[in-house]
Amino acid sequence: MHPSVHTSAEPPAIALAEKQRALHDALQDCGSVVLGYSGGVDSTYLAKAALDALGPDRVLAVTGRSPSYPEVQ
Q1: Tens of pLDDT along 12-70?
Q2: CB pairs under 8 A, 24+ apart, for 6-10?
Q3: How far apart are CA 16 and CA 69, in angstroms?
Q4: Treating both helix axes as pointing N-terminal to C-terminal, what angle do 41-54 and 12-30 enclose, rounded to 10 degrees?
Q5: pTM of the model
Q6: Helix intervals (H) in the chain
Q7: Where are the domains of the chain?
Q8: Cα separation, 28 vs 18, whole angstroms
Q9: What distance in Å separates the CA atoms of residue 26 and residue 50, rounded to the nearest whole number?
């Protein structure tokens, strides 16, 4: 097993900060959002980013009912 090697011209922290900024700007452009929330890492991260960008009055996270999700966890 070989460690991964970063090959981008910019350091990972800068690339990450640029992506976070782009997400923040895109969310602000939306004005308000409704998010499908599963409770996983991805939807939790997006919900937090939306709250930071828009505030709690402009974000609604919803969880749908589906046979693929248990009723009780």
Answers
A1: 888 999 999 999 999 999 999 999 998 899 999 999 999 999 999 999 999 888 787 67
A2: none
A3: 32
A4: 60
A5: 0.74
A6: 12-30, 41-54
A7: 32-65
A8: 15
A9: 10
